[in-house]
Amino acid sequence: MDTTWQFVCIASLMITGVIAAFVHDIYRALVKALKVKGVVFAVAEVIFAFAVFTAVSTVLVSLTSGALRPVYLLSIGLGIVIYYVICGKRIQNTAKMIITKFKRLFVNFFRIIIQVCYMIGKVITWPIAAVFRISTCIANGFNCIMKSRR
Predict the structure, then answer these.
(1) 106 lies in which domain range?
(2) Which of 23, 45, 69, 85 has the fewest C-beta atoms under 10 angstroms from its C-beta?
(3) Do residues 60 and 123 both lie within one domain?
(4) 127-142: per-residue pLDDT in tens?
């Protein structure tokens, strides 16, 4: 591997570290906004760690042709540090706010759809309920009408 390609690998792996940190911020915002706790949180952490490890390892091995050197791992770490120095928690807090608003919008949207379906169901079943009341009244010898007139 020549020096130019090594420099490209180091720069690419630093960018990979920045992207991994960004994805982690978005993931943490999602976890906080959706209030994931307990066993679900633990399982989500393991799945996320496995997915990021797999993605970063794939990039690392494909760029370096399998030649793993400590400088490559350090460049990924440096990319993560650069991201957190520049962005801090701003991206995570902004993403959490956006996710929370979309969550409310999503919940309200489905609440409206459920209410509309409920009203449509009431309109559709009203004739059936009226027929049922009338047939019950006839079967009881019109006692329901007599009781309501007293």
Answers:
(1) 102-150
(2) 85
(3) no
(4) 887 788 778 777 777 6
